[in-house]
């Protein structure tokens, strides 16, 4: 059994819908203050995601934000969950990630995925049908750049001359891949250092895929993005923030995150989200029980992270849940997981 401790973190998209007005200057400043405060309370990771051309400002520049976070924190791991890598030149991704790793003394991990929103691909001169090869070859070229090799790279999608990519990272970032469909999950199992999951639905599929590609299940690494709301009175909390969750999920549906938008209907009410399992509601005791069971059953899970706040929700509102998470959930989960693993060892 892998005894490496799981870290607990926060997930950010920096969406700022007009429906709940505030300035982006305030949102960025307040969120950076929140992250510094959360680290002091025991939060160990922050995850940033990416989209472009969104009316609500869904962050197009996670590397810039990662640098700002790195400058304000000391031990927090910073990762992307995720960068839409087919939209980028892989060498630029390698350079930016290496620079972030150096700025943060090795605290940065690069998470990528193949994307799904057609307007982004059109705007950046790519096509959706090429996503798998753009992702896979991009990962290969990023690793090539980090290795310090100074020879030519020729692939189906990318060519790069015999030029050095410098500076090299002194601590090579983990290269993580996110996916939800079975072929994409198998690709992640084959090419990635770890798997970025969402809603915990595909952990077993990823572990099975590791075996199919000749890797050990025991060596799997899962970074598990959660869609759970933890509150002292979760039903009352949901009544207050459910519309924000509805906005978030329906936005992903409209972009095609879960399949063609004309084939995946939007949700009508926040209750519909709960009924479909898109979000779960936990009080502190339930959260401890559920997270402990998941981590004991899946020692491959290396990080669990929650949305710090939902689109349009105030930063202070999210901070109240972070306080509960760090005071009444994380310490109890750690103790319960350690006790369970000691019992198995004994």
Describe this structure in words.
The chain has 346 residues and is α/β, with parallel strands linked by helices. The protein has a single domain (7-345), classed as TIM Barrel (Alpha-Beta Barrel), CATH 3.20.20. 46% of the residues lie in helices and 15% in strands. It is built from eleven helices and 13 strands. It has an eight-stranded parallel barrel, surrounded by four helices. Strands 6-7 form a two-stranded antiparallel sheet. It has a two-stranded parallel sheet with strand order 11-12. Helix 2 (62-72) runs parallel beside helix 3 (90-103). It is globular. The two termini are 13 Å apart.
Q: Give the CA-CA distance, first to last residue.
A: 13 Å
Unreliable stretches (pLDDT < 50, length at least 5) are none
What would the average pLDDT be, to the nearest integer?
96
Strand residue content? 15-25%
Q: Helical segment tally?
A: 11
Number of domains: 1
CATH superfamily: Luciferase-like domain
In order across it, which strands form the biggest sheet? 1-2-3-5-8-9-10-13
The Rg value, from CA coordinates, equals: 20 Å
Query: Which series of helices and strands comes N to C?
Result: EHEHEEHEHHEEEHEHEEHHEHEH
Based on the coordinates given, report the CATH architecture.
Answer: Alpha-Beta Barrel
What percentage of residues falls in helices of 4 or more residues? 40-55%
How does the overall form come out from the CA principal axes?
A: globular
- Report the CATH topology name: TIM Barrel
CATH classification, class level:
Alpha Beta
In this structure, how is the largest beta sheet organized?
A: 8 strands, parallel, barrel
**SS-based class:** alpha/beta
Number of strands: 13
